Model the fold of this input.
Amino acid sequence: MAAELLDVPLDVYRFDPQRDKKPHYAHYDLKLPAHTPVLSALLKVRTDLDPTLTLRYSCRSAICGSCAMLVNSKSRLACQTPIGPELARHGRIVIDPMRNQPVLRDLVVDADTFWQNYRKIEPHLIPDEQHPLPTDRESPMTPEEVDRFQETPRCIACGACYSACPAVEADAAFPGPMALAKLYRFVVDPRDGATEARLVKIQPEGLWLCLRCHLCTEACPKDVRPSERIRDLKEMAIAVQGGSENGSRHAIGFKDNIREKGILNEMKLVRQTSGIAGMLSQIPQGIKLARKKPELLRSPHRIAGQDEVEKLYEILDGDDRPETP
Ligand code: FES
Done:
């Protein structure tokens, strides 16, 4: 029996810099079965209605990572996203190019910065000169060592996480979730000879710009969980270098601060993060804040139930997180 056909109202972002002054949406009405992937709907538009529609794709099987785009404002692989649930939820389908990268034409973005960030983390084994790997045979890892990669080998570099990341949007210096997840993969590789150097180098390059919003993990079509690996990198960077950056000092100060009284002491945290000199430089903002919220200047009392907070810390301290290799 033939599958029921749905009415599919499709609005697609169009922009040809050689022809258009500004982007616009083109509307197409299709009739397709619910299981049709968004990519197939776009290819039908291109075949039947408008051969100029420009998009990237290759495998059509969620393997190559080329077809990432925004489907109803969420970063998705178009070949992996069926139209039925999108229509059920939104009543229509709106397609945009990925965020955080300039549009070259229609749904194709310029991925140069994305790949530059990837190259910056040196995504290859760096030999340990004291203990060189054998050149006449393989260097096998134990299953336990392989497990330390977590889900990172699943990454297909589609860029969905990069598109979803507000830290990339706010500061182009941030390497992005994909690059940091790949960095994690090499940091925990027992055959790599540059673990500490990698962790030291990445801190000023933007590790601490991650906001921990987890949008990258939500966007990832392969469940790589970049935000969790960035968290691990931060912990490993602190283990190697202590509080060497404002970001790591802030994390350490925040943790100690809450452990002490169960509530944040804002004034103390500023000093812990930026030092006395940094604190003095923030006096104008401090005065503005104190006018609005004078209680922030007072040292808070220990909260009722601080014992429970302490118990949470004990659980977290015993958590089974990866150790610095
Ligand atoms: S076309 Fe290859 S991942 Fe979608």
Remarks:
- The domain at 7-108 is CATH 3.10.20.30 (Ubiquitin-like (UB roll)).
- The first strand starts at residue 5 and ends at 14.
